[in-house]
Amino acid sequence: MTPELNDGAYVFTTVKDVSVIPREITLFEFKEKEGVTVVLERSQADALHLEYHFVAAWITLLIHSSLEAVGLTAAFSNALTEHNISCNVVAGYYHDHIFVGTGDAIKAMSVLTALAESSK
User: Fold this and answer.
1) Burial label, 120 (beta-carbon count in 10 A; 0-12, 13-18, 19+)
2) Which end of the chain is more exposed for a tag (fewer CB within 10 A), N or C?
């Protein structure tokens, strides 16, 4: 599990009509009954005048984790919790993606790197 900090700042926003956002600029979308949650780069959200409240750094875990794996999310979320770092997790087909506040990015990378080293 090697953590990789992606460039950029990302935001979570919500819209009723996702067609107002060009699909090629979204990182991901999730449909909820209240609206569609969209994650995209902060600069794109600003250009579209979208409202958001949380600016995040995006960390990818470079391990092909099974969607049926047990314990990986708990391990890294517990390690981050011990260092008072909030995280939002998205499981993609190939990797887990962790969003932490931009101010916690370097600290989160340190925690995740230490966790990866201790599990070798």
Assistant:
1) exposed
2) C
